[in-house]
Amino acid sequence: ELPRMDGLTFLRGLMRHHPLPVIIVSAFTPKGSKLAMDALEIGAVEIIQKPSRAFGVGEMAAELIAMIKAAAGARVRSAAAAPAVALPRVLPALRAGSSNKIIAMGASTGGTQALQAVLTQLPADIPPILIVQHMPEGFTRTFAERLNSLCPFEVREAAHGDAVTPGRALVAPGGKHLVLARHGTRWVAELNDGPKVSRQRPSVEVLFQSVAKLAGPSTVAVIMTGMGGDGAEGMLALKTAGAQTIAQDEQSCVVFGMPKEAIRMGGVNHVVPLARIPETILKLL
What we know:
This protein has a seven-stranded parallel sheet, with helices on both faces. Helix 8 (257-264) links the parallel strand 10 (244-248) and strand 11 (270-272). The chain is 34% helix and 19% strand. It is α/β, with parallel strands linked by helices and 285 residues long. The longest helix has 16 residues, at 57-72.
C-alpha cells in the first residue's frame, strides 16, 4: 500500500518500462494470496510468506537469501514486449489408450506462469496430473483455484486420500509432501509432513520418486523452470523405470536450475521450449 499507487500498479509499470526480477513478500490472508497471484501474473518470479511468529524470521531469512540469489539470474521480459509464449487453443482430445497413464509435473521459480501456459492447452479428457509448485502454505489453494477457472478440466489443491483420476489435476499444498499411492486397484494422492527435501516441502523429488515406484512406464513427467536441483534424481528414477521425461529448455525458463540438473544427470528424454510442452505431452501419451 503506497501513498499514490498500490503495489500492483507499480509492478505493472516496472515490468513494462524497466523489467526486473521481483520477489513478493506477502501475509497469507484471502486478500494477500489473491494479490500475490496477481503479482505473479504480472511478472513477479517468487512469493515468500511473512512469518506469523517471531521465531519464524530466521527460517524466512535463509529462504529469502536463496530466492534472491536465484532471482538475480532470472530471465524477465518487458510486459510491453510480445508474449514469451504464443500457444494455440486447447489441443484436441486424446485417442483411446491413454486412460492408464499419469502425468507428474514439477516447477519452482517462474513456474506459476509456465504451468498455466501448459495446463490451459491440455484437453478435458487428460489423464490424472500431479503437480508440485514450490509455494508457501495457503497460497497453493488460491493458485489451484485460479487454474481451475482457466483449464478445461478440474484443478484443485490436493487433499489426503483424493482419487487420482482422469480429468483432474492435483496441486501439492504448501507445507505438505504429495505422493502417489495405490489402494487396491485405485491410485490415490497422499500427503505427509516428512522432512524437507532440497529445502522444500512439497518437494518435486518426493513426488517423482513415488510415481517412479508405482507407475513408472505409464508416466509422462515434466520438469520446468526453477532454482536448485529439486526433482533431478526423481527424473532419472522415472526414466530408468520406463517413463517418458520432458525438461523445459533454457531459453524459455525464468531460471534454468531444475531442468539443467535433471538433464545433467541423464534423466531427460526430451528437451523442448515451453510452447511445445503441451503437444509433446500429448504425443507421448
